[in-house]
Amino acid sequence: MSEKRSRGGAKGFILWAIAVVLMAGAYAYQKRTGPTHPMKGSLRVGDADVRYELLRSHETTGGAPIAVPSPDGKVTGVLHWKNYPTKDSFTAVPMAVEKSDGESLLQAALPQRPAAGKIEYYLELTTPGGPVRIPEAGGENEILLRYKDPVPGSILWPHILAMFFTMLIGMRAGLSALFQPSTVKRYSWTTLIIMSTGGLVLGPIVQKYAFGAYWTGFPWGYDLTDNKLLIMWVVWLIACVWMGGKPRADGKKSGGLGRVGVILASVVMVAVYLIPHSMQGSELDYEKLEQGVDPKAAIGTGDK
To answer: CB within 8 A of 246, min separation 6: which ones?
Structure first.
């Protein structure tokens, strides 16, 4: 019996290690994708490459600062911006070289906008090696930045942690369904509970703080983040119902149908996490804003 428990413990450790790797991969992918993460790149200045990060999300407490390194003031340039989506012409703002923590930065600020207000912008720089446009013309011609209202850390961080643990334990549940059926029920129901708390309870509260609406997915809108969460939650709910809520009296493995459901739910979860975060989200309608509509009422729900 002790040998059997030892083998089960070793298998469980290996499955947890695999789940951690899968979650880490999903986290790294989310950090590199999505419309709100900074655009990263490098500039060639003299004999050195200097790294920069350009914002694509900022709080409504002030205008978004846009900056790139300018070693010894050798990089100059102009920031071009306009409201999105509008037919306005781009406004050119000269960028100034300023010192920050001992580093020379070429910077300017985008205008402040209400929550869900979007601005598209690009930079035209002059470097020792010649002119540089960020981003390069022909690809992603402009960078899109969206404003959001501040979200209290006491709400935001529990939401973020809950969604990461949802991924971690959900992957563990899927691995249990394949290799350790005796634990699949425990991890499946834990996944559903954490997902419900972090996604369906805390998630809407975060969105209410940031953009003024609790839910902008089906049936009221097309917010991809809300809709993919809803799909994932429904799939896991079905899988857990198939699994059942009570352990078998004889201590045997959970039924095959429930295990298949958990495997499918895990696959859906991976697919959902491969979709970049904050796609087709809340967007300020500048035409309504110009007509005098309250900024909160001028926010669309991802239906464009």
So the answer is: none
